[in-house]
């Protein structure tokens, strides 16, 4: 699969994540059945500015490194369940319907 095709798959999925919900890098890779968390992270770093990038977090709920303040502001405005300055993954994790 071409890199552009993979990037498009990742970005399309990220656009589907509802406000107040999140997916981890690994969950995105698992859903797509391609790549891994690092590959998803690379796509988001290079092409993710036009999608709700803040809805993609680490598996432990950690926000996007280097953009924590803006991500936290966006999560609070969407009502995303938080635990301190991390996303509460038990409440906020989202998986696309089949």
UniProtKB/TrEMBL annotation:
InterPro entries: ATL_DNA_repair (IPR052520), MethylDNA_cys_MeTrfase_DNA-bd (IPR014048), MethylDNA_cys_MeTrfase_DNAb (IPR036217), WH-like_DNA-bd_sf (IPR036388). It comes from the Bacteria. This is Methylated-DNA-[protein]-cysteine S-methyltransferase DNA binding domain-containing protein. Residues 7-68 form the Methylated-DNA-[protein]-cysteine S-methyltransferase DNA binding domain. Pfam families: DNA_binding_1. It comes from Dactylosporangium salmoneum. Keywords: DNA damage.
């Amino acid at each position: 699969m071409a890199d552009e095709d993979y990037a498009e798959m990742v970005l399309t999925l990220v656009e589907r994540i509802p406000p107040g919900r999140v997916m981890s890098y690994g969950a995105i890779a698992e859903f797509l059945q391609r790549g891994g968390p690092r590959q998803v992270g690379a796509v988001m770093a290079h092409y993710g500015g036009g999608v709700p990038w803040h809805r993609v977090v680490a598996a432990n709920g950690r926000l996007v490194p280097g953009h924590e303040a803006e991500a936290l502001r966006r999560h609070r405005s969407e009502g995303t369940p938080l635990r301190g300055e991390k996303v509460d993954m038990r409440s906020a994790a989202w998986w696309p319907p089949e």
